[in-house]
């Protein structure tokens, strides 16, 4: 197990290098001058040129990227061009807000997706099955930003029950959490149904039923546990996606999280913030996937033998 974890952590290095190179390239070749941003639009051209030279922005692209990697390895990701603060200070200040949304969103997705998927599988081709699959298809097809806007129009503008955005009391969590959780719930529902259908057709399920074991026990004890591995995979991937994919939802609801911070940083070409945020979310996503792989061993002991 320790060797497996170590190998996975080593594989994280080329992934982060690839991500950082891609994002650095995009930010470097998009229009905009960070020096002009720092000094302001009315700053004299001579000062802007002097600051560009001081920041190393006139150096060749590969030299700039190499300097970034060297500093990053030492734990220095620079300072924000707009606020002047260390970038990880900005990220750690906002990440708890993103984490809250992602956790609540994935809980909503699990509470909806797994029970509905089980019921659909056990009542295959029924009206309930057809209805749930149509709802799941709609959930997958609906973009987060569109669903968020519709929920705001209905519950905030129309009924006035919930706030339309911002960070406040528990009510401000409801709409963004539902927006995030709906798409994930649809995917979990489809995967749970598919996995359960495959398991309940196995011989040992027929044997358990032939022995007179109660149907509820057959489903909950024998079928569900063996159908959980692909479901756990999807839940883990969705949680990682919600951490990094809350960009649109946070923007729609003016939620002060990492996603909204990234959008603001991209608009102002605040390269250090964008790079650090993307690398942080990529690392978080990879760690979540590693945790899911380790969790397999607890769900199915046969998987432990594969950790070599």
From TrEMBL:
Membrane topology of the entry: Multi-pass membrane protein
PROSITE patterns in alphabetical order? ABC_TM1
- The keyword Transport is annotated on this UniProt entry: yes
Q: Which UniProt keywords apply?
A: Cell membrane, Ion transport, Membrane, Nickel, Nickel transport, Transmembrane, Transmembrane helix, Transport
Q: Organism's domain of life?
A: Bacteria
Alphabetized InterPro entries for the sequence: BPD_transp_1_N, MetI-like, MetI-like_sf, Opp2B
Pfam families in UniProt:
BPD_transp_1, BPD_transp_1_N
Task: Please list every transmembrane segment annotated in the UniProt record, as residue ranges.
Answer: 9-29, 99-122, 134-161, 173-192, 227-253, 273-299
Q: Where in the cell is it found?
A: Cell membrane
- SUPFAM superfamilies in the record: MetI-like
Q: Does the keyword Transmembrane helix apply?
A: yes
Please state every residue range assigned to the domain named ABC transmembrane type-1. 95-296
For this protein, the record's PANTHER family field holds:
DIPEPTIDE TRANSPORT SYSTEM PERMEASE PROTEIN DPPB-RELATED (PTHR43163:SF6)
* Protein family per UniProt: Belongs to the binding-protein-dependent transport system permease family. OppBC subfamily.
- This one is known as ABC transporter permease subunit
- The scientific name of the source species is Psychrilyobacter piezotolerans
């Amino acid at each position: 197990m320790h060797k497996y974890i170590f190998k996975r952590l080593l594989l994280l290095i080329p992934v982060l290098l690839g991500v950082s190179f891609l994002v650095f390239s995009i930010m470097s070749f998009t229009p905009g001058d960070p020096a002009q941003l720092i000094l302001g639009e009315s700053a004299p051209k001579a000062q802007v040129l002097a600051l560009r030279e001081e920041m190393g922005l006139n150096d060749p692209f590969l030299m700039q990227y190499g300097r970034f990697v060297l500093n990053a390895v030492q734990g220095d990701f620079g300072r924000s061009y707009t606020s002047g603060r260390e970038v990880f200070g900005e990220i750690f200040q906002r990440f708890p807000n993103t984490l809250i949304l992602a956790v609540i969103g994935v809980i909503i997705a699990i509470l909806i997706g797994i029970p509905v998927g089980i019921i659909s599988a056990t009542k295959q081709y029924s009206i309930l099955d057809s209805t749930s699959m149509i709802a799941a298809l709609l959930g997958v097809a609906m973009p987060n930003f569109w669903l968020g806007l519709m929920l705001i129009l209905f519950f905030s503008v129309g009924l006035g029950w919930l706030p339309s955005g911002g960070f406040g009391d528990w009510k401000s969590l409801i709409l963004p959490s539902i927006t995030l959780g709906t798409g994930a719930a649809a995917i979990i529902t489809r995967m749970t149904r598919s996995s359960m259908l495959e398991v309940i057709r196995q011989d040992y399920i027929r044997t358990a039923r032939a022995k007179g074991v109660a149907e509820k026990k057959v489903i909950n004890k024998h079928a569900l546990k063996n159908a959980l591995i692909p479901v756990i995979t999807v839940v883990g991937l969705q949680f990682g996606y919600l951490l990094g994919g809350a960009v649109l939802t946070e923007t729609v609801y003016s939620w002060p999280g990492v996603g909204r911070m990234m959008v603001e940083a991209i608009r102002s070409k605040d390269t250090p913030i964008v790079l650090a945020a993307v690398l942080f979310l990529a690392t978080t996503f990879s760690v979540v996937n590693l945790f899911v792989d380790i969790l397999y061993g607890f769900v199915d002991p046969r998987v432990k033998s594969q950790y070599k």
